[in-house]
Description:
The protein is mainly beta. About 5% of the residues lie in helices and about 40% in strands. The chain has helices at about 5-20, 130-135, 225, 230-235, 235-240; strands at about 35-40, 45-50, 60-65, 75-80, 90-95, 100-105, 110-115, 125-130, 140, 145, 150-155, 155-160, 165-170, 175-180, 195, 205-210, 215, 245-250, 255-260, 265-270, 280-285, 290-295, 300-310, 320-325, 330-335, 340-345, 355-360, 365-370, 375-380, 400-405, 410-415, 425-430, 445-450. β22 (about 290-295) and β23 (about 300-310) form a beta hairpin.
Amino acid sequence: MKQLTGSAYFIVFAFLLSIFPIASADETCMSPYMAKIVGQEDFVYVWTLGMEGLGDEQDKLVTVDVNPKSENYGKVINTLSVGGRNEAHHSGLTDDRRYLWASGLDTNKIFIFDVHTDPAKPRLHKTISNFVAQSGGVVGPHTSYAMPGRMLITGLSNDKDHGGVTGMVEYTNEGEYIATYWMPTDADLQGAVKGGNFADGYGYDVRVLPRRNVMVTSSFTGWNNYMMDLGQMMADPEAMQRFGNTVVIWDLHKRQPKKVLDVPGAPLEVRCAWGSQNNYCFTTTALTSKIWLIYEDDSGDWQAKPVADIGVAEQIPLPVDISIAADDSLLWVDTWNDGMTRVFDISDPHDAKEIYTEKIGAQINMLSQSWDGKRVYFTSSLLSNWDKQQAEEGDLQYFKSYTWDGEKLTMQFSIDFIAAKLGMPHQMRFGSYALYAKNRPAGENRVVTAAAR
């Protein structure tokens, strides 16, 4: 059957979701173009930074068994080292879920793992080592985001001055370069409307709302900052000025910037609503500790405004990862510096209210929430030169599994990544035997594909 693209692809995905109940597995914050696991996830793949003097010292993909029915539940069942330390950071699955792309912010290498041949034991399929040259100077591959038959990679920096001006790079699922899309700047708005004071050209994350033909990008900082010691950077007034202050609204199909919105204070992760009438996304600002709503107003124009404070900004909680519930009712927010996860009621997206707070560890970064809202996973590492080196309360570098009953978290198990000599755990992605039918034990989960293949 001919492969579907664009809005038709999303319509098929939405139709399949209408057939299968919302109470299913998978992560909530994935691309709408991705095939979807229905049932209990079997594995969590943890993209992990190597630590000098610990184990083999290399970055690695760590596979954790998370199926309560498994005899290996709560255990590391596989590790795959990639050679050296690349500043392992973010990862993302292709639309067909057959491959996991994982990047290094320092070496600019992209490692493509085969996670379908044997989901319990991923294989290194391909390494892209010429990202900077192919892209025309983009540095720091960050978000790997699934598009129909494509992967869209956001950058954090550039090879001219290692500052924050950057772009996005598009590849085929096979890892062939397609195009580079540079972020709009004051010097070159590329036809975009400047909605405020800034057009800094910085980049970080990307998400899409296909039915609105909208793509949303956020902004962070360049190589000069993210590879610097955190204490040194925070004591450097000039360095602290080198953070992004923008969210950009793009024409999704044309990959054309349309409007640059002011969102001061380094807006990081972008999470968009799932509801068919909910034309909005959220981001949080690392430096000013606020939740921002990015929304389409009644006239069809896109706007940005803060809708909640996260902790006390003067105490620098430093919000990092966020996760939106499948029914758009809750927003989870992790704050790295104080090790807290917070839950906000976003039933009114214009007035987010904090309803729950839990201490997870000495520091915290990523979280992955299951689609049915019953399971939440946490990891601890932010950046190698920013992470805390010691903590009186322990729980410095970890992977933790919790259940969520709608009112409180209950820990199921925890893995100390330092004691296990694995390194610093960062990005998580779900895996399943359902990814490939012949690997699936009888009676186990399945995949709902976004399009016939």
